[in-house]
Amino acid sequence: ARWDRYRAAAGAGLRRADVVVAPTTAMLAQLQRLYGPLPGLALVVPNGSSAPQAPVASLAAKEAFVLAAGRLWDPAKNLAALDAAARGLGHDVLVAGALVDEGGAVATASAVRVLGHLPAHELAAVRRRAAVFAAPARYEPFGLAVLEAARDCCALVLGDIASLREVWAGAATYVDPDDPGALRGALRELLDDPALARAAGARAQRRAARYTVEAMTAAHLALYRRLVPAGVGA
Hints:
33% of the residues are buried. The chain has 234 residues and is of the alpha/beta class. It is built from 9 helices and 8 strands. The two termini are 37 Å apart. 42% of the residues lie in helices and 16% in strands. The chain has helices at 4-16, 25-35, 79-86, 120-129, 144-151, 162-168, 180-191, 194-208, 213-227; strands spanning 19-22, 41-44, 63-69, 93-96, 113-116, 130-135, 155-159, 173-175.
């Protein structure tokens, strides 16, 4: 019930919009499922990252540990599955992000190493060392943290959901977000085989090259130019 006001406001905004933009087709489908047919023009503009892309040579310096990053208190990010998968893995699992939500509720974890909130440059330093980046999400419109990890040549182990498959296609390993055993197995396979992890990291980085801030900006500018002659917002 506490989200009723949000639902009403979001629905009203969508119904009055001339254009609805989402970062994935999966997210557009979610909006349609939750709020009904989208009026006007609905299109996908993927997110982009301006984070520097690590040289492929850096793959040789990767270390056998897992990194995750995000709102650790958010059930959609699924810290609980990662914490369960870390038990008996035999490798370190580091998680960066906030453990406390806006209401003061605290997420708990016992098997992963919690780094807390890190400044961007510190997170980037850890990311460049990590062989694997894990995001066993149950819900994710796009996943900027995943994109930044891919740009740094991390092998990706992701929740098997439509949006992440859309973004990463064959450049990631997918697991059922509610199966910690499958997650543990996927992480162990990569961590125990450095050559396999390097190949997976290289595939992820090649896929990440399409998701740039320049491409995102160009798509939005093209949309704005399309709208202005039509008098939208005049």
